Amino acid sequence: MLWVDKHRPSSLTALSYHGSISQRLESLAQKPESLPHLFFYGPSGSGKRTRITALLGAIFGSSANRLKLDQRTFTTPTGRTVEIHMVTSPHHVELSPGDAGNNDRFVIQDVLKELAATKNIRSSVANMDKDSQQADAAAEIKVVVLNQVDRLSKQAQAALRRTMEKYAATCRLILCCDNPSKLIAPLRSRCLGIRVPAPSITEIVGVLNAVAQKENLTLSDAFAEKLAKESNRNLRKALLMLEAAKVQAGGNQLGADQILPSTDWELYISQLAQDITNEQSPSRLMAAREKLYELLVNCIPATTILKKLTGELISSLDDSLKLEVLEWAAFYEHRIAMGSKEIFHLEAFVAKFMAIYKKYLNDMFADDF
Amino acid sequence: MSTTNASAAGVPWVERYRPKSLKDVSHQGEVVATLQNAVTTGRLPHLLFYGPPGSGKTSVALALCRQLWHPSQWRKRVLELNASDERGISVVRDKIKHFASLSVGQVNVPAKRNFFGGPKEDEKKTMDEDDEQEYPNPPFKIIILDEADTVTADAQAALRRIIEANSRITRFILICNYVTRVIEPLASRCAKFRFQSLPPHSMKMRLNEIAQNEGCSVTDSHLDSILELAEGDMRRAVTTLQSAHALGSIDDQAVAELAGVPPASEVEKLIQALHCNEFEPMRQAVDDICAEGYAGQLLLKVLLEKFMDADDLDEMGRARLAIRIAEAEHRMIDGADEYLQLMTVCGLAMQCIQAKKVAMEE
Ligand SMILES: Nc1ncnc2c1ncn2[C@@H]1O[C@H](COP(=O)(O)OP(=O)(O)OP(=O)(O)O)[C@@H](O)[C@H]1O
Ligand SMILES: [Mg+2]
To answer: Does B242 contact ligand 1 (Cβ within 6 A)?
Structure first.
């Protein structure tokens, strides 16, 4: 098991940072019958899922951890069969309806509505480790966790609206995503927002040290800090890098001079950034296109590629060009969000960058003479 | 605001305090008056409700139906189709046809029924008031098409015919957020009602009632900050009130946090970074505020307010920024990345501030 999962705190009290959020969740868990629908948002790797799991544990006790995998099959009105996977406990169901792609609307209309409308079987879930009153109230409600709601189409989101209201007495939704603007306003109005900020560098260092201790690893402060910074305040990434560094080092010592592990695709993108800064020509553009394809084929999301590439390009550019390049990155990223052929927009961005940069070089040259 | 019985104890406040009758509806005076009139005369045109989330559209439609027929009747009389139902045109046509053709039976509900006449569990809460009341029992059925702006234009076009074909026995209530998403020929068949977002003072009365009913003590100033942050959305206000209540002690900061609004100090840091006219500190500041996880749209709104009365921008700069922010918000709603959009806005702001500085020096 990866360290990220192995050392995931399982109760609200075990969560190491954002004490005020944990406290707030604790108070909400005290009165499960009046729990509103919740909407967790915050940067990726900030610990949203962990907090949701811990909250469920606080509401339902240990039986919320008795998980099993489940799967539903249903037929769309156009006759296609779609499968959707979910994780269930006696009290809750967790799924990512975005997985169904264009059919996400039917997941909400069929599967979710059915889940929301059926009541929990009370007797079978009697809960020993909670005082009976709270357990009773908790047993009456069922929680549906929807992950990555930012991937849901507008149609699918609209389908949630009345479902959330009609079955509010028995079913509470917990929505979770990185990008809150992608949730339509009527849905945001139906939820209590819980913002989960990225942990600070110090907080990440704290978590890294705790994990290192459990794994009998000697972790130097300097290297812990380096990891935290390199992770961009993404705790998941920091932990993955820690584990990778340990494998790289081959021992239990991680000193200050340990090299930072970085992922292949990130190296690949910085290489691409260098390529197109060094030479602007049709053949380079073709080569860049190959690289972009390669990244997409390996399931790196187009937006991630574009953001990383922009970051790399900008850091080596003259200040006078930075804003212009940024402007175009924002333009093409919007196109990616709107359209379907991601490669077109990535390629267009690269071409645009080449044009801007070439012109800049030419102008400099002209000035010199 | 009727009784709270046991079965309602587990319902979030927004649902528990959903207006049961038209007189419970806050603020939407004109709409309510017109509909009250319809209740007394029993005559009703097709209706189109539009307005922002949480302004009472769905509630008013349901309350209206409740007032037209006795609880035992109105379920047979009203068909609610919303976005959680499949709404392909053939499905809608069939459903409506079927519904319209069902006989409603004898309309001979006694105006006053024995108090112990034994209505079903879920009707109990409205009973004590309702049984005092006479129902107009108008001879038509109502189809509520909620969230109509998500019905495709094709299906809407087909709806025109359906509405006409069934208009003798059915009335339609179309509900949507954006009236422009309903095609004109459809909209023109309905009496249109715009629901306004609620002003603080009328939300306050309702919230006070709810707070009193729930034994929730909340000071006036906290109530005011809840109302301010709710921005005219009654549902948000009620949810915030309940959450604040569940959290026990509440202060202004906690209320702001519930609404996800960045504290002034964080915004100030970002603004400062814009003034130094260097790319790196600006980028760092944007990175930091994004890492805090504030919703991009909210940040844009806060920035817009700041820019509009900032002395270090000239008219031109303000105008350019306003346009850029509008564009960024539009793109965010389309699903574009919040960070990149925010960066471009901040980049432009930096340029504009610098431009004014240079102009002043000359
Ligand atoms: N005018 C109002 N008076 C009293 N309560 C209201 C009013 N408007 C909204 N509410 C409260 O907000 C909740 C949601 O209202 P409603 O479902 O009618 O909103 P809506 O206008 O249909 O919103 P949406 O566009 O998101 O569907 C209600 O349950 C009620 O508690
Ligand atoms: Mg509604």
So the answer is: no
